[in-house]
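Q: Give me the 3D complex with 1,3-dihydroxyacetonephosphate.
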Amino acid sequence: MGSVTRKPLIAGNWKMNLDHLQAVAFVQKLHWTLKDAAHETDSVEVAVFPPFTDIRTVQTLMDADKIPFALGAQDVSAKDSGAYTGEVSGAFLKKLDVHYVIIGHSERREYHAESDEIVAGKVQAALRHGLVPVICVGETLEQREESGPTAVSVAQLRAALEGVASDADIVVAYEPVWAIGTGQVASPEQAQEVCAALRSVVADALGDAAAERTRILYGGSVKSGNIASFMREPDVDGALVGGASLLADEFAAIIRYQKHVGV
Ligand code: 13P
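A: Here is the predicted complex, encoded as structure tokens.
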């Protein structure tokens, strides 16, 4: 299991799924499913990352019903305000109690041509507005074959941490592109190898204390049946879950992974 000083984070990236009405039903169901499992979930932080159009509704619901999930967004503009049609400012997200923001997801790197420079600009914007960036890195299968398991992720994280202060609050997510939405999950050993390399990058860039406290997540075909095996690895501090985070029972079972750790 991860270090006791790092609280595990189980994060659900909904991607472009669930409208705001479906979001209400989903969050309520997830909350009710977990209600009687407090002894298993108290030590785990749960976060949901709905589409922008759901955030206001989910925030209102969680506030009214005292639902203890953290709220995240799936992207943020590198700019603060102005003539940037279609962009969403970190300032607006902060006003809606958004805590986390995913930056540099491989789907944005691929479909929106987000370069390392754009990712670094968004990390700076998130930190400027008091948001915690969840910095995503990961290699394609071709890149893994060409340059090995760690080189791409290490380079992406180094670029994203350019100019970041040593006391910054960040989360890193290792998501091998070949494991996202494919059912072809990385082995726990593969995840550990890259997550350990990423912790060294944080140590180099931000110092040992930052490396010790920063949570590094694994993402890519995480399910209730494999989460415990990842959480046993010393440098894996949680999971960024896509498809399985859209099913309340399945996501609740992932959050309750401790039931299976050590079994
Ligand atoms: P899947 O869990 O659907 O493979 O998606 C992973 C992911 O991209 C989370 O950000």
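A quick observation: The mean pLDDT is 95.
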